[in-house]
């Protein structure tokens, strides 16, 4: 074989290798994240939908010709606002919206959950639903940054629309007791306050006395 043919053959092999390595590598639509409660400090169940079929610009991906294998994983990264270190998370998943949900270990490192050994060889996955229970909602209230995730080598690209949530403040409730129950103008009354919900850092509690300065329990 001539040197030119050898070079052409090497180029063909290299191009074939590059093409093969790029097959199945694509980004897909941002995660759709919902929860059964968005209240601060509440223990919530989050449902995350991975749509592997389209992009954020609604173009079709190569999911149908990009099968997964037994080593393909699913990851979910919670925003930094969440503290999951002491949470007893529970994970269940469903592939292609078919059949019952399957329980899987929530392998948690920092704020990333990884699910392993969930696909069969050659699996064609159009969508994937992950339910994560026992998630402590963050505090204080406000809009979170985006959740992110992957399926195999494919990445869900955050778009700051469906891949984030807004945490709402819990109603701050407190109760009062008085000691002693009766005092005169020269006496002291001690107010003991029991907080039902966490108050924000730097917050204040105001006490409105009756205008007559007379009241009864």
Strand residues, percent: 25-35%
From the 3D structure, determine the CATH topology of the domain at 24-167: Immunoglobulin-like
Total count of helical runs of at least 4 residues: 1
Rg, nearest Å = 28 Å
Percent of residues in helical segments?
under 10%
Tell me about this structure.
The chain has one helix spanning 3-22; strands at 27-28, 32-35, 43-51, 74-77, 90-95, 102-104, 107-109, 112-115, 127-136, 142-143, 148-151, 154-156, 166-167, 174-179, 190-195. The chain has 1 helix and 15 strands, in the order H-E-E-E-E-E-E-E-E-E-E-E-E-E-E-E. 9% of the residues lie in helices and 31% in strands. The strands form 4 sheets. The protein has a 6-stranded mixed sheet, with no helix packed on it. It has a 5-stranded antiparallel sheet with strand order 2-3-9-5-6, with no helix packed on it. The chain is elongated, with a radius of gyration of 28 Å. The chain has a domain at 24-167: Immunoglobulin-like, CATH 2.60.40. Mean pLDDT is 83; it is low at 13-23. The chain has 217 residues and is mainly β. The longest helix has 20 residues, at 3-22.
Layout of helices and strands, plus pairs?
Elements: H1 3-22, E1 27-28, E2 32-35, E3 43-51, E4 74-77, E5 90-95, E6 102-104, E7 107-109, E8 112-115, E9 127-136, E10 142-143, E11 148-151, E12 154-156, E13 166-167, E14 174-179, E15 190-195
Parallel strand pairs: 1-12
Antiparallel strand pairs: 2-3, 3-9, 4-8, 4-11, 5-6, 5-9, 7-8, 10-13, 11-12, 14-15
């Amino acid at each position: 074989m001539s040197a030119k043919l050898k070079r052409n053959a090497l180029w063909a092999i290299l191009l074939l290798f590059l093409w093969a390595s790029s097959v199945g590598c694509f980004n897909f639509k941002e995660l759709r994240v919902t929860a059964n409660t968005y209240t601060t400090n509440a223990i919530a169940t989050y449902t995350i939908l991975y749509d592997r079929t389209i992009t954020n610009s609604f173009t079709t991906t190569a999911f149908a010709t990009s099968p997964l294998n037994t080593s393909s994983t699913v990851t979910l990264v919670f925003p930094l606002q969440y503290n999951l270190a002491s949470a007893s998370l529970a994970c269940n998943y469903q592939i292609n919206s078919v059949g019952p949900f399957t329980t899987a270990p929530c392998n948690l490192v920092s704020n990333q959950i990884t699910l392993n050994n969930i696909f069969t060889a050659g699996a064609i996955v159009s969508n994937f639903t992950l339910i994560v229970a026992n998630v402590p909602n963050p505090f204080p209230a406000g809009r979170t940054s985006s959740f992110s995730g992957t399926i195999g080598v494919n990445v869900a690209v955050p778009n700051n629309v469906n891949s984030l949530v807004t945490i709402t403040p819990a109603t701050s409730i407190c109760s009062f007791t008085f000691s002693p129950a009766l005092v005169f103008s020269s006496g002291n009354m001690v107010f003991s306050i029991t907080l039902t919900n966490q108050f924000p850092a730097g917050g204040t509690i105001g006490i409105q006395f009756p205008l007559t300065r007379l009241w009864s329990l």
